[in-house]
Amino acid sequence: MLKIAVIGGRDTVMGFKALGLDTFPASDSAEAGKILRRLTRESEEEYAIIYLEETFAAQIQGEIERFKDSPSPAIILIPGREGSTGMGRQALRAAVERAVGTNILGD
Amino acid sequence: MAGTTIIPTRMVLNQLKGRLRTARRGHKLLKDKRDELMRQFMDVVRRNKVLRERVEDGLTEAFASLQVASSIMSPEMLEQALLYPRQSVELGMKFKNIMSVNVPVYSFTTKNNDPTEIYPYGFAQTSGELDDALENMAKVFEDMLELAEVEKTMQLLAEEIEKTRRRVNALEYVMIPDLESNIKYITMKLEENENATKVRLLKVKEMVLQQAHNYK
């Protein structure tokens, strides 16, 4: 059976743990990147969805990009404790720009 | 076309005409595919936008209530309360085919179906705020799951659209004009040859007549 992982700061991750998701607390982006690599490699698609805290995503963009075109796993950015940084919306804009060639959402 | 040598014969001409027909048909089909993909994509984008806003708002709220809970309870207590989840989530994944793009569809089952069973602790030592926080969390999680599905679909569709668009453009601006200009070249060359033959025959006829009747 497939599982869902949450990577983020200790405080962010705590709440998800109670929901029964697998949580992986990280203290900085380097650690988050390491965890992400481990989850996507060793587990062999055991994790179908990986939620990643936005604040860590900026520095490990390359890691995330690798899975953009493969059907699994889905790496989804979620806002952290400090609120949304707009990176999640950025992903939406990037996808639109890629498909249409220009940003037609107007934001 | 420059760069490639084409032999101006009828056989090559027929071949090129066949290829042009195929290219035109392919172009039309791919264009239809692109348009349909685009339509689907815009739907997905719109849904994604709504969901993302909902998830971000929901999470902010959930984190805020968790913050309140953690300020009331000691961090050790909080950690202890959440350490052993009673609930566990199992994820099922199927694939749906949208215009030959395989996109994931998630379904999840929780081990405990009772929604009141999300609290992995006894109520005696924890504050009510923690209950609220977890309830908020559980609510937003359903949206998060849908967001994952929609966002992945969006990314996969974007990739497919990009590929299809390139193909359509390659056919429209490179393949088809190339073939057309080659066909034109061959037709002109053949006409030229035909004219040359005709002129030569006329000339020969003239010469033969002259020899036979000694016309001056």
CATH architecture of chain B: Orthogonal Bundle
Classify the fold: give the CATH topology of chain A. Answer: Rossmann fold
Radius of gyration of chain B (Å) = 36 Å
Tell me the overall shape of chain A: globular
Separation, N- and C-terminal Cα atoms of chain B: 48 Å
Summary, kept brief:
The complex is a heterodimer of chains A (about 110) and B (about 220). With about 110 residues, chain A is α/β, with parallel strands linked by helices.
What does this structure look like?
The complex is a heterodimer of chains A (107) and B (216). Chain A has 107 residues and is of the alpha/beta class. Chain A has one domain (3-100): Rossmann fold (3-Layer(aba) Sandwich). Chain A contains five helices and four strands, in the order E-H-E-H-E-H-H-E-H. Chain A has helices at residues 10-18, 29-41, 54-57, 61-65, 87-100, and strands at 3-8, 22-25, 47-53, 74-78. Chain A has a four-stranded parallel β-sheet, sandwiched between helices. In chain A, helix 1 links the parallel strand 1 and strand 2 (22-25). The longest helix of chain A is centred in the last third of the chain and has 14 residues, at 87-100. The radius of gyration of chain A is 14 Å and the shape is globular. Chain A starts with a strand and ends in a 7-residue tail after the last helix. With 216 residues, chain B is mostly helical. Chain B has a single domain (17-206), classed as Helix Hairpins, CATH 1.10.287. Chain B has three helices and two strands; from the N terminus they run H-H-E-E-H. In chain B, helix 1 (10-72) runs antiparallel to helix 3 (128-213). The chains are: A alpha/beta (107), B mainly alpha (216). Chains A and B meet through helix 1, strand 3, strand 4 and helix 5 of A and helix 1, helix 2, strand 1, strand 2 and helix 3 of B.
